[in-house]
Each structure stands twice: as C-alpha cells, then as structure tokens.
Specification:
With about 90 residues, this protein is of the alpha+beta class. It has a single domain, classed as Zinc/RING finger domain, C3HC4 (zinc finger) (Herpes Virus-1), CATH 3.30.40. A 5-stranded antiparallel β-sheet has the order 2-1-3-4-5. A hairpin with a 5-residue loop joins strand 1 and strand 2.
Length: about 90
Amino acid sequence: MSVRRSSKCTHLDQIREVKPNTDGCEECLQLGDTWVHLRLCMVCGHVGCCDDSKNKHATRHYHATQHPIMRSLEPGEDWYFCFADNLGFTLE
C-alpha cells in the first residue's frame, strides 16, 4: 500500500476527542488472541489491531463502520491514518 504524505486529509472534521474503549484490541481480547500493534478509531474510540496483526481489526472496523481516521496507540508514536484518503499524517 502506498501512502501519500504530501496531500491533506479531507476527513479531519470527523476527529473526535475519544478515549480507548479497551486496553487492547477489542476483538482479539474477546477471542483470546494476540496482536502486534494497536490503533485507535478517532471517531468512536474502538481499539483494533494493525495490519501486521493476523486479524487486522482496525482495518475491519473501518470497513464495517466507515470511520475513516485512526491513530497509532503505540508509545512514542503520534501519527494518524485516513483509510478513506489512504493517507498517513501527523497533526501540528
């Protein structure tokens, strides 16, 4: 997947002040499964696993809800990704 970094996300108005719903991937916790990295939906607070995880719950959440923007929940990372625009970015 290629990520455009010079374009502007057209969905910034959908970002909400959210808190993570869980301390780990919501679906993996229910399944008793593991994940690699966590992502936070910036619309509803859903916590899903990244695409390096076998279940890819963050991407599945986007396809199920059309919530376009997530951010990394990894310590020290402050990047966001818009699924709809296929765009990675940081907020300044």
